[in-house]
Amino acid sequence: MSKANTSSVDTTDGYKIAHQGKEKKLAELAKYVQKGENPTEQIVNARKIAFCALNKEKAKKRAKLAKASRKKNKK
To answer: Would you tell me which of 46, 53, 66, 75 could form a disulfide with 32, CB atoms 3.0–4.6 Å apart?
Structure first.
């Protein structure tokens, strides 16, 4: 498999971080797979909940970084 980035900058750490994030998201979704009367509806709702929780976590992290950046620029 060839890399998408052909520049001289080493981006292997970025690829590793992206892969870990993807694995974490898939593991989180796998917890919510249920079987019942209407399994597709349950899976869809569980995925919505899981994605919402992950997005909320990401938003908190971004807000924290933005606040730190504003504080740094203020000095």
So the answer is: 46
